[in-house]
Amino acid sequence: xxxxxxxxxxxxxxxxxxxxxxxxxxxxxxxxxxxxxxxxxxxxxxxxxxxxxxxxxxxxxxxxxxxxxxxxxxxxxxxxxxxxxxxxxxxxxxxxxxxxxxxxxxxxxxxxxxxxxxxxxxxxxxxxxxxxxxxxxxxxxxxxxxx
Amino acid sequence: xxxxxxxxxxxxxxxxxxxxxxxxxxxxxxxxxxxxxxxxxxxxxxxxxxxxxxxxxxxxxxxxxxxxxxxxxxxxxxxxxxxxxxxxxxxxxxxxxxxxxxxxxxxxxxxxxxxxxxxxxxxxxxxxxxxxxxxxxxxxxxxxxxx
Amino acid sequence: xxxxxxxxxxxxxxxxxxxxxxxxxxxxxxxxxxxxxxxxxxxxxxxxxxxxxxxxxxxxxxxxxxxxxxxxxxxxxxxxxxxxxxxxxxxxxxxxxxxxxxxxxxxxxxxxxxxxxxxxxxxxxxxxxxxxxxxxxxxxxxxxxxx
Amino acid sequence: xxxxxxxxxxxxxxxxxxxxxxxxxxxxxxxxxxxxxxxxxxxxxxxxxxxxxxxxxxxxxxxxxxxxxxxxxxxxxxxxxxxxxxxxxxxxxxxxxxxxxxxxxxxxxxxxxxxxxxxxxxxxxxxxxxxxxxxxxxxxxxxxxxx
Lengths: 147, 147, 147, 147
Hints:
Chain A is 22% helix and 44% strand. The first copy, chain A, has helices spanning 7-16, 19-24, 55-71; strands at residues 26-32, 35-41, 78-89, 97-107, 111-122, 125-140.
């Protein structure tokens, strides 16, 4: 998986432009080749009706983690778009913080498949709460899509 | 599809408790038996890095629309949890507003399948931007899950 | 949705080369622009352990129906590959025959999204048993992939 | 993950009743608690139009592998039904044999999530060709569903 030497800065710059991440209170934790971790504080701002984190908020950080894992292996001029994803909610998302870790499963010429695992941390212990699989498309030479 | 006489109030009360919907600026539009529509204003608060609406925000309103469509057909004592969903992003989500319309596909004893279509409105015209399929589980007698 | 004038013959020729369709006893029923129907006789050859049709056989005809619906809207030199699909099994697949109807949801430049509904016919009545959503990729100029 | 002492025999007996597995030429390879492997010979009987293994045949062994991985962790009186699955086709499935390995991701009271990886073996080397995620439902006390 090639990517570019400055992959971590690319991801950080792009993440900073994702308004939704700031809105829900998510932040970029770690960026490695083929792997990206995003953290979300559990607050009422991201809740569903029973007080758990809304599946949409869980999906948001999982999708970004998977997409940016994909971006770390892209050539400099290519961006990445989510074509589709599927997420299983394994357990109610509760605790203090969620960690979404995205990893590249397969990087093809035009299609990249990535997964993200989401864990909830409570009193220092983590347990899995969601599993996402995403199909990403490498985009080259389309206006406004270079990350 | 039975549901309860006060299904619209049930959905409205529950929606009002979803902190994420307020955080991203989504609001409940219409509630009919087996069908629920949610509206989201397109603002930088819900953007991804290219300025389109983030797939996570699109998923959030689509998941809520599908889940609440399911709730309209549930008995009074039953709540609904999303087991999993899959979403295809059909086109970049841009424009002034997004409309997510959830509809029940099949209501079984314990499993409800629902779909949501998301359309983007721009200059008075709507075009489809996403299609979600969700598997919901009817929950009875579990503490804190009655909607 | 353009496609080619001889789309129905293209689909029929390609279908005849799908060994799996013959092996499980599936046949092509109707081919229209953007819509293809496949029929499968319910026999013990396609069963799972409880005597219903195996989810894999249901998926096989649904995937072919969705894929060929996509092929009807492709230019002459392009083939189609399934990138991924998701299927919900709505009810046990029993009866005399299954009908899988694939329809194009959105045909983009490189990505086509299609759905297939599968119905089971029993004593002249049909009921839905499965719903599939597929992401297809248009392939041009790759050896051996022109349908 | 509990399951029953005779889980391997349970899976073998049930697999032997899946007509589809015999029809496509699949056989049960290994059964461990929470993990099941199924093998499929690559022959024209399971092909699609380009000579690769049909996505439906790949899905069939992956679904059975995931489902039986789930069955190994079920109590004696419970059976398992596939509620839905999603599969990504990572590469054309070609070679001499396919191996589908199903593993339980999470076993809840009523819902079990399992994944299956499919690899193609060619000249003694294996490469991944598909990744499936399935939602299974534990069924108790329903006529005819005890495996």
